[in-house]
Design goal:
Blueprint: E1 4-7, H1 13-24, E2 28-33, E3 46-48, H2 54-64, E4 69-72, E5 78-79, H3 87-97, H4 99-115, E6 118-123, H5 136-156, E7 161-168, E8 180-181, H6 190-205, H7 210-222, E9 229-232, H8 234-245, H9 248-258
Helix pairs in contact: 1-7, 2-4, 3-5
Length: 265
């Protein structure tokens, strides 16, 4: 029987690559975006969804019905010094990246529990394993998803529902170009922030293709009992391991060197 999949944030990047691949592999796929009219024709139905709104999430599930696979991918990046980021900006970041995923999971679970089956796949990030300077709140949302999904894995196991985190490293998407910048920059951080954002831009340009992440999601969708975590990309594989085994001073020095935080060192 054909499985039904919902991919949030499917207008570009990882979400679009994932929706296209699953559609071509025989899944019934629905994608979501906040403004479907601005996306243009797609190979899969594109539905309106604002993950920040309970009403929008309910309206979507009234249309789609029961899902076999939920892929929580919607999110955006927020850059800027932590001190320069307002609480309103930080809360907005969490409302989309973290609570948006929670809303979607809560909406999908009742039918999945009734069916005794289902897959929750959450697109996390290397930034949820090792924090990115001048991306404190983006990193915090991804760290939050890591803890949430790990607890959820235990809670849903008795119901036959799997929970999986996909943790890519740098990916060649428009996430950086589309990122929001803290509205109140502080001059004292300006030089360091510029170097960090330049380094991130270079890492993104050298990153893996979003199709690599989509291919991993496809394998998870076909796996009866997927693991909790899958890392995608060389940087996602070795950086968390290095963080685990190296003294903090050694690891932190490498991070600061990578992002140009100590230009005179």
């Amino acid at each position: 029987m054909t499985q039904t999949v919902l991919v949030t944030g499917a207008s570009s990047g990882i979400g679009k690559a994932t929706a296209l691949l699953l559609q071509r592999e025989g899944f019934t796929v629905f994608g979501t975006t906040r403004r479907p009219d601005g996306v243009g024709p797609q190979e899969f139905p594109m539905l309106a969804l604002d993950v920040r709104s309970d009403d929008s999430v309910k309206a979507l599930f009234d249309k789609v019905g029961r899902l076999d696979v939920l892929i929580d991918n919607a999110g955006y990046a927020l850059t800027g010094a932590a001190e320069a980021t307002t609480l309103a900006e930080a809360k907005a970041q969490f409302e989309t990246n973290f609570f948006g995923a929670v809303r979607m999971v809560n909406a999908a679970l009742p039918a999945m529990r009734t069916a005794g089956a289902g897959k929750i796949i959450i697109i996390s990030s290397l930034a949820g394993l090792t924090a990115i300077p001048f991306g404190a709140f983006y990193s915090a949302t991804k760290f939050a998803l890591e803890g949430y999904a790990e607890a959820l894995w235990h809670e849903l196991r008795p119901f036959g529902i799997s929970v999986t985190l996909v943790e890519p490293g740098f990916v060649r998407t428009r996430l950086g170009e589309a990122s929001q910048v803290a509205a109140g920059p502080l001059p004292v951080y300006a030089a360091a922030e510029e170097r960090v954002l330049r380094a991130i831009g270079g890492a993104v340009s050298r990153g893996i293709a979003p199709e690599r992440v989509a291919a991993r999601v496809l394998r998870i969708a076909h796996t009866d009992q997927p693991r909790l975590r899958y890392r995608v990309g060389t940087d996602a594989m070795w950086l968390p391991r290095l963080k685990h085994v190296a003294p903090w001073s050694v690891f932190a020095a490498g991070v600061r060197r990578t992002f140009g935080l100590d230009p005179n060192a």
